[in-house]
Design a protein that fits this description.
A 7-stranded antiparallel beta sheet has the order 1-8-9-2-7-5-4. It has one domain (6-125): Small Protein B, Chain: A (Beta Barrel), CATH 2.40.280.10. The chain is globular, with a radius of gyration of 19 Å. It has helices spanning 13-18, 33-40, 88-99, 129-154; strands at 6-11, 19-29, 44-45, 50-54, 57-61, 64-65, 82-85, 103-113, 116-126. A hairpin with a 2-residue loop joins β4 and β5. Helix content is 34%, strand content 37%. The longest helix has 26 residues, at 129-154. The chain is an alpha+beta fold. It comes from Caldicoprobacter faecalis. Keywords: Cytoplasm, RNA-binding. Its main location: cytoplasm. Belongs to the SmpB family. One of its GO terms (biological process) is trans-translation.
Length: 155
């Protein structure tokens, strides 16, 4: 991301391994005050999280935000369902994708943009085992090509 003022808090690198990423969207996220403080401290885990559309709204499930240390009674459940903020047209597009077989909504990144907590949401299609092997083989071949090219440049 080339924009100024963006600080990446958490990334879901496993999503790139497990899914074909079709399209990405930036969404706001509804958080309580103590949750925002925990996010700013980097205490977020989105590895097993996913999004779903329910009653025309997008919700994020299984995103773990650790309780804020000084939050006492104001802390919320770390795994609670959180609402994502998207435009109606974006929600309609996502609904169309998700209704197709094999597509799901997966969070890729949580970041701060101009002080606001944002999440990068991807429309993803699950990879089969042979697709994962193919991706690994392609990545290894690319590394070998780059290594050979660097060796060639040294001579």
């Amino acid at each position: 991301m080339a924009d100024e003022g963006i600080k990446i808090i958490a990334q879901n690198k496993k999503a790139w391994h497990d899914y074909f990423i079709e399209e990405t969207y930036e969404a706001g996220i509804v958080l309580a005050g103590t949750e925002v403080k925990s996010v700013r401290q980097g205490k977020v885990n989105i590895r097993d999280s996913y999004a779903a559309i329910k009653d025309g709204e997008v919700f994020l499930y299984n995103m773990h935000i650790s309780p804020y240390e000084k939050g006492n009674i104001f802390n919320r459940d770390p795994l609670r369902t959180r609402k994502l903020l998207l435009n109606r047209s974006e929600i309609n597009k996502l609904t169309g994708y998700v209704q197709q077989k094999g597509y799901t909504l997966v969070p890729l990144k949580v970041y701060l943009k101009r002080g606001w907590v944002k999440i990068e949401l991807a429309v993803a299609k699950g990879k089969k085992i042979y697709d994962k092997r193919q991706s690994i083989a392609k990545r290894d071949a690319q590394r070998a090509i780059e290594r050979a090219f660097r060796e060639r440049q040294k001579m």
